[in-house]
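Sequence in, structure out.
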Amino acid sequence: MKIAALIARYLLGLVFFVFGLNGFLHFIPAQPLPPGPAGQFAGALLASHYFLVVSRFKSRAARCCS
């Protein structure tokens, strides 16, 4: 069971690390914003650079998981 927990922890850390870096480097192509209020909300988050803060927290969480 220790080995399974260790593998799960490293995989979770890898996921957080990859998607956290994607917020800065944009190596995974982004889909267009959805129409309507959801798109306006996502556009506001992008314009305010809030996604950069979230990406920084994700990449730092990767260090805690691994």
